[in-house]
Write a structure and sequence with these properties.
- The chain is an alpha/beta fold and 174 residues long.
- It has five helices and six strands, in the order αββααβαββαβ.
- The chain has a three-stranded mixed sheet. A three-stranded mixed sheet has the order 4-5-6.
- β5, α5 and β6 form a beta-alpha-beta unit.
- α1 packs antiparallel against α3.
- The radius of gyration is 16 Å and the shape is globular.
């Protein structure tokens, strides 16, 4: 059994059911030199809150694993250390990794500003006024940005949710 097959087996037993239950999908893209790259699609809250658990489980089961990267489908991995500013790094992650995931819910995140380690964002489309927007920000977007961009301490949602015209999950759907 090669390393990719071992990773798939570990994910199949405990991680994939948890991600599916949260409305997402996760699959192995590659395993190279101990670095596992996983693709996450569907709800942004599906896999992002589980990132620590995923990495811990893979490292415990397969000692050869040195790093786990999770990206949105259709995007490339981002080396944050190559970026000159926090704003640029956050913007790249939003565009390459988060927006492709929330596009499944007709949503989009726009970066307004980064100041003193805080990323100020606006949720648009199906995310504006969505009853699960706070979950998306706190369990999806914020943990990913804090994990991937050294210097980010939090995310502030500056969205006017009351103005949302077609939220993906309206309050009536809850």
């Amino acid at each position: 059994m090669d390393l990719a097959e071992k990773v798939s087996a570990v994910l199949k037993d405990s991680i994939i059911p948890a991600v599916i239950a949260r409305g997402g999908e996760i699959r192995v893209l590659s395993v190279t030199n101990g670095v596992v790259t996983l693709a996450l699609s569907g709800s942004p809250g599906a896999g992002v809150p589980l990132l620590g658990r995923i990495e811990a489980k893979l490292r415990a089961a397969i000692p050869e694993i040195t790093e786990v990267q999770v990206i949105g489908l259709g995007s490339d991995s981002l080396d944050v250390s190559s970026h000159a500013s926090l704003r640029e790094a956050v913007s790249q992650i939003l565009e390459r990794e988060i927006n492709p995931i929330i596009a499944a819910h007709r949503g989009h995140v726009t970066l307004l500003d980064v100041e003193k380690g805080w990323a100020r964002i606006r949720l648009e489309g199906g995310c504006q006024g969505c009853s699960l927007a706070e979950v998306t920000v706190r369990q999806g977007i914020e943990p990913m940005l804090r994990a991937r961009v050294p210097g980010i301490v939090g995310v502030a949602d500056a969205t006017d949710h009351a103005a949302g015209r077609e939220p993906f999950y309206s309050a009536a759907k809850r």
